[in-house]
Amino acid sequence: MSASPSEPSALLDRCLESGRIHSAYLLSGPGAAPRDAALRFVRGIVCQGSPRPCEACPSCRRSTGRAEIALDGTGKKGPLLRHVGDHADLFWVERGEQDTRVRIGQIRALQQALRLRSSEGGRRAVVVADAERMNQEAQNALLRLLEEPPPQTTLVLATATSAGLLATVRSRCQRVAFRPPRASALDDPDLAALAARLDSIGQAALPDLLDWAEEYRGARAQVAEGVAALLEGASHWLRQRVAQAVERGAADDLRELDGLRVLASCRRNLVQRNANPQMVAERALFALRDVVGP
Ligand SMILES: [Zn+2]
Question: 51 C-alpha vs ligand 1 centroid, how far in Å?
């Protein structure tokens, strides 16, 4: 899928390209995406090349290629924070290996480090990963940094969910939300258009269905992809109908379940047995009409 302009990482790339970098960002979303994007973003902030990070300039070389030092929130067995790679102007804070929280001591150590001047004379950046795991004390300490950001410094909070953060912290940050990775190859508008079409398939006449299947005629590689999307979208549509039936308490003897079985078999034929995509589409569409037809 191509990156749409509203995609979170594209948005951050545009900040880097334009050089208009704010003093605080809040990257939120499930999985590793916010953390990975935060790392890439701060490396891009100090990069001297293009595109940022260019992976070739001295800054990029310093901010990569070193094993991460494990942090200890108490500072007893390890440092409270670390640099990204060994770049002196990039800082990384996260909860210690044994900790459930990002501790206030870590945020204080960060404040301390940021009091010193930038070693390169350029921008500096900080990632606070696991930001939702800061307790209130730590958040209040961080809030002071957000309210009076040190010059030329960008703070990037990476978090699974921004729900646990103080509203005052959230409001100081540019918010960038990462959506859960889609299980589907279909975009929402495609899915909605297909669902609308399927909603009336019960009234479709035989020639209509044949015409529909005819749309999947042509070079196999291309049309097979289209049929795979049709099967996936139709399965999604059927599962929604099942869920609605269950909610209504009308889930006995659902024809939708037969439909799902046929779609699964169609998919096997398409993918494993190299069946003719148009024929597979025909079989699927007939089965779908049987599910919702009279
Ligand atoms: Zn670079």
Answer: 8
